[in-house]
Write a structure and sequence with these properties.
Length: about 240
């Protein structure tokens, strides 16, 4: 570590009582570790390569990237961000921050402010090598796409699907769920529809509106199944999207 890194960690560490405890701490159960590292604005390269996404966060990241997530390619690494409007989506935004807090060096920050009123807030991670594989599967010539079938069947678990529903889901008039996959091509949407059919047995439709946006419709008869699959992984304030 550089002297500045050691100094920054030591300064924050003094705020916490010393202990001789050697118990293992479950990932993300305590925010002390992530709070310490957040105070260090720049970390040495060898520390950056130590960071690794556990599988549950890979699934969450995958689902978020299918909706409102963004991956930005920096000089060496890639960083993840998500922007949400407040107050309507603040609970969800904070839940995402809690998931990725160990990878951040700042708390959520205002993104768009109008007349002194905060409209949207952003969560942004450090640039880290662990995000590079997801940039490579989600971006083709700088354009976000729905990844290949192997990635879908690996990472679009109920956790990932819950984040997709939270970000792009809308309760459809007369019942059913509409996934507003506006930014994806018809071929991309077909790939996702195929996945939903094979994995969950849901026979979905693709609606193309007057503006040419492709949206996936999950019929009303599957709504109960959708709730069973993703409900346990959704924040309470977003369950309205499933009419729950």
């Amino acid at each position: 570590m550089t002297p500045d890194t050691i100094k920054a960690i030591s300064k924050v560490a003094k705020k916490f009582p010393s202990t001789t405890c050697t118990d293992l701490v479950i990932w993300n159960e305590s925010n002390i570790g992530s709070s310490l590292i957040m105070w260090v604005k720049r970390i040495p390269l060898y520390l950056a390569y130590i960071y690794e996404l556990p599988f549950n966060l890979k699934c969450a990241l995958f689902g978020i990237m299918l909706s409102d997530g963004h991956l930005e390619k920096l000089t060496n690494f890639v960083r993840f961000s998500i922007i949400q409007s407040i107050p309507a989506h603040f609970e969800y935004l904070w839940a995402v921050f809690e998931l990725f807090k160990p990878f951040c060096n700042n708390y959520p920050a205002p993104n768009k402010v109008i007349n002194g009123i905060i409209i949207t807030v952003i969560v942004r991670t450090r640039g880290l090598p662990c995000f590079i594989p997801f940039y490579e599967i989600f971006y083709l010539n700088g354009i976000k796409v729905i990844p290949d079938n192997i990635s879908l069947f690996t990472y679009l678990t109920p956790i990932g699907l819950a984040h997709l529903v939270i970000g792009d889901g809308a309760y459809y008039r007369g019942g059913g769920l509409l996934l507003c996959t506006d930014s994806f091509t018809l071929l991309d949407c077909c790939r996702l529809v195929n996945f939903l059919h094979i994995r969950y047995g849901w026979v979905c439709n693709i609606h193309t509106n007057k503006k040419g946006y492709n949206r996936i419709y999950i019929p009303k008869r599957y709504l109960g199944d959708v709730l069973t699959v993703v409900g346990p992984h959704m924040v309470p304030s977003m369950l309205y999207k499933l009419n729950a």
